[in-house]
């Protein structure tokens, strides 16, 4: 029989993710990254990130399967494909506008952007293909974990999906701690935006589509107008 409420094991695992992922992100940020090495091995970095996301998602799916959590409970269903696409397109447009506004405000406030966020962005055709694949893995994996499993678990505890979405979005933002304060605020706000169609439609697929389209739009060129000045991007590309 499928579970309609989180079991003790599912609840414990949800708490581990909610608290543990931000802690891991803070530890990684404190440890630092060799930026020159990361820039020289961008595709290897994509593989590493994709592997981490796959492990996280697989563990969450394993726990949900073990505890017999219904797929519909976390939004893994599509009753209205056209509506899901429209919701995804709308969330993508709003999300990209929000990214531009928040990045502009962060620049005015002199919030420092993490150089790693820029280094992750693809330059060559091969890197762009790898980035698109990574974007798809991140869209599915992070939505299943954050807007699926964690949102369902917290909403079951609190009887308030919107409060649950706020808590999950905070964790989601902190889990992007390597992007420094500007990135944390940006990711957390986008997490809340992606929770809206999930709650209103009961499906993860609008959020998955929007997540992928936003990542793809930023990664395939939008980052040059968001994360740094075009002149600085040109210098980075030429190795100066």
Please write out the topology.
Elements: H1 8-31, H2 35-40, H3 42-66, H4 81-108, H5 115-119, H6 125-158, H7 161-174, H8 180-201, H9 205-226, H10 230-238
Helix pairs in contact: 1-6, 1-7, 3-6, 4-8, 4-9, 6-7, 6-8, 6-9, 7-8, 8-9
- In DSSP terms (H or I, runs of 4 or more residues), the helix count works out at 10
- Please tell me the total number of domains: 1
Question: Please, what is the average pLDDT?
Answer: 89
Q: What is the distance, rounded to the nearest whole angstrom, between the alpha carbons of the first and last residues?
A: 61 Å
Which percent range describes the beta-strand content?
under 5%
Order of helices and strands: HHHHHHHHHH
Query: Given the C-alpha coordinates, what overall shape results?
Result: globular
What would you call the structural class? mainly alpha
Query: How many β-strand runs?
Result: 0
Gyration radius, rounded: 18 Å
**Main pleated-sheet profile:** none
Weakly predicted, low-confidence segments: 229-240
Percent helix among the residues? Answer: over 70%
Give your account of this protein's structure.
With 240 residues, the protein is mainly α. The chain has one domain (8-70, 81-238). Helices cover 79% and strands 0% of the residues. It has ten helices and no strands. It has helices at residues 8-31, 35-40, 42-66, 81-108, 115-119, 125-158, 161-174, 180-201, 205-226, 230-238. Helix 4 packs parallel to helix 9 and helix 7 (161-174) packs antiparallel against helix 8 (180-201). The longest helix has 34 residues, at 125-158. 37% of the residues are buried. Mean pLDDT is 89; it is low at 229-240.
